[in-house]
Amino acid sequence: RLDGADPLPVGRLGYFVLEATDRKNGVNNTFGLYRVTLEVDGEPVFQYRMDGYAFDETRYCNVVACYPLQIASRNEAIRLAVPESNRLDCYPIVRNRGLIACSAGERRQLRIVAEDDSGNRSSLTFAVTGSDQKAFHADADTLVRVIDPSKRFADLHDDLCVTIPAGALYEPVRYEMIRHARPAPRDTTLTVLSSVYRVLSRETPLHEPAEVTVRAFVPRDLQPHAALATINGKGRLSYLGGTYRSGGITLRTRTLGYLLMVADTVPPRLEPRFGDGADLSRARGFSLAIDDNFSGIASWRLHIDGKWVPCDRFPMKGTLVHFFDAPAQRRTHAVRLSVTDGCGNATHFEGTFYR
What pTM, to 2 d.p., does this model score? Predict the structure, then answer.
């Protein structure tokens, strides 16, 4: 659907993105589209058809979709064009990569047909008219570079270094590094150690990881707990990782956007779901609730009577669970659990149970 009936003003060359979804009878799930066809002045110039792809081609779905729209939408956001970097064979019809040429004052008629895997179709017909107005105006005082995805890109500063390998980007991207003063963190359990750097956008998909180095002075007691973080879409700090060495942290990551260095000194939280000395003779096992404020659970070790035993983690439930595999011995057992987060903070639990 479109909000109005007037012809849409467009530039001299470009493409549209279709945001759509599909439903089936009797279920609440939403489904993807099977086929999308674009016609310009009655002639098909582009068709997307999803019959499947190999596992090692999965990341190319980031370029079939319009990634910035896709991650913010509950629908599918499909590019009605084929970027040069795409490797998926899902385009039976392609003319001029699906790009639409429209000179100033020219009027063209477009029709988009969306189809599900049961043969149901929806269509949208509308007109476009060429405009010579520029969509973007660069600030004369701002130096903006465009990254060629076929070449290695490097931006080197004293406190920030960014290297993007050739082939990591799917299309040319405007690059501008912006430095912000240290923010007051919304998460008071973290210590901000560096300025905040905006490197591209968090909505920029990367096929291969970029290498990022952030340098800052860090007091000796905080160095073992330092890591890189990003600011997510909700304005909160999210853990990226890395280890502080030689005055900075270097990390290979597919997440760009706002980057900064922080220190996390808060250990994970543990809460046993059984009382000390509890009788577990008839239980299949025991569990402990586990949580961390920032960097997540990195490792854990469980010992019963001084002997290591297996312990399973269920992240969705926030628990660590040990299942008994030996018959009850009708005596008291000693339990010790050690849990470490991604920034090296550790929590230890000691208790007993009867079995």
Answer: 0.82
